[in-house]
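Good morning C.,

I know you're traveling, so I'll keep this short. The sequence:
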Amino acid sequence: MEISQEARADDPWPGYFAGRGHPGALRIGSGAEGVVYRLGLGRVAKVWAGRPPIELTRRVYADLARRRLPFATPEIFEVVEHEGVLVTYERELPGAPMGRDHPEEEFGRELPAPSGPSCRSRRGPS
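The tokens, ready to paste straight into the viewer:
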């Protein structure tokens, strides 16, 4: 799948990520749960469309990691709430997206957008 290197003018998230030290954030996928941006250095950020059970997700990811599987598994490094929108910073997994979506397609539903500079951060286990 070819990924456009151009930022969408109506997408506020690359600017938000640039302000947090991730210039050049690139939207690489979207789905029912939200949108994923490549940040570089092996990290991605997932902007959630709803309120996922983050602590449960962390426990599942940690359980997968303990099993020493022969493939990479997700890991949440940090959870940030920005203007009421949850963002997780995660390990970038190798390979191609499993979905048929293309990062330039329109979202299936409205993705929350931040409206100001406030954010709260909760760091996960390192």
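Safe travels,
E.
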